Amino acid sequence: MGNSSSTPSRPPTPPPSPLLRTPWREITWGDNKNSLQYLKNFQPQNEEATIRVLLHGPVGAGKSSFINSVNNVLQGKMTNEALASATTSDQSFTKIYQTYKIKKEGRGNFYPFVFNDVMGLEEKTGVRADDIKLALKGHMKDGYKFNPVSSLSDGDSHYNSSPSISDRVHVLVCIHDANAVQIKSSVLEKMREIREAASELGIPQLAILTHIDSACGETEKTLRNVYKSKHLKKKMGDFSSSLGIPMNCIFPVKNYSHEIQINSDVDTLILNALRLMIDFGDDYAEKL
């Protein structure tokens, strides 16, 4: 009677890891002192300029929350400067053009850079691309109420007919939600139109990818997985392709939302994006 032999069963192949072995972008975690000191010491090369950063993007992407988060990082405490909406809806929370300054140590002192937030780019009820074009050139005064039906005109009291260097926008930043499945074609068209107008003016452009913690389970565990996450790398690549912004000009961040204390890793990602924004804007203002 012959010996019967059975082939031992192989263990099941483990599923592919959602993380890359090594991060695809280098970043220094935990040591934010140098970046904070850099920003505290920053003075524009053009002495007449205050660097103006204009944020735009689809509704609910986190534009106001990003301003609040930058404020938190620079103040070293939780703040609520830009009054971000806690609910995500298809209606834009920001209705008025407003400049946000950030307080600096010492009474009456502010950082030499400011932020402007605009109404979301909804299809029919959002900010008009023509309004953002006027803001880029410095023609829009604080307090202008966005009107989805008609743009700011030169006869309006909020029209600035002779903008200074500081009134102009020095860097345009597109804010996009990493959870968004796809940008609506009508919104994407607006974004491209705005991007083209900024390019014609020579204004540098960056993009921020928000909500990276809820978009990827591995990043939710620890933000330090952000540049190892295959999902987020693909998200950034898709966004880069759709809008034409290079990958090295796209920064993933997590805005402060439910936290009640400052978090070092949240700060690191925001500071990385902020430093480049200010440097790009400074180089542009210096040429004006």
Question: How would you sum up this structure, described in words?
Answer:
- With 288 residues, the chain is α/β, with parallel strands linked by helices.
- The protein has a single domain, classed as Rossmann fold (3-Layer(aba) Sandwich), CATH 3.40.50.300.
- Helices cover 33% and strands 10% of the residues.
- The chain contains 8 helices and 6 strands, in the order αβαββαβαβαααβα.
- The chain has a 6-stranded mixed β-sheet with strand order 2-3-1-4-5-6, sandwiched between helices.
- The chain is globular, with a radius of gyration of 22 Å.
CATH architecture annotation: 3-Layer(aba) Sandwich
* CATH homology superfamily name: P-loop containing nucleotide triphosphate hydrolases
What is the CATH topology descriptor?
Rossmann fold
**Broad CATH class:** Alpha Beta
**How many helix segments?**
8
Mean pLDDT score, rounded?
A: 90
The share of residues in helices is 25-40%
Number of domains: 1
Largest sheet composition: 6 strands, mixed
- Report the β-strand fraction as a percent range: 5-15%
What form results from the Cα inertia axes?
globular
Compute the number of strand runs: 6
What is the succession of H and E elements?
HEHEEHEHEHHHEH
The termini sit apart by: 95 Å
Question: Pairing-aware structural class of the strands and helices?
Answer: alpha/beta
CA radius of gyration is 22 Å
Order of neighbouring strands in the sheet with most strands:
2-3-1-4-5-6
Spans of 5+ residues with little confidence (pLDDT < 50)?
A: 85-90
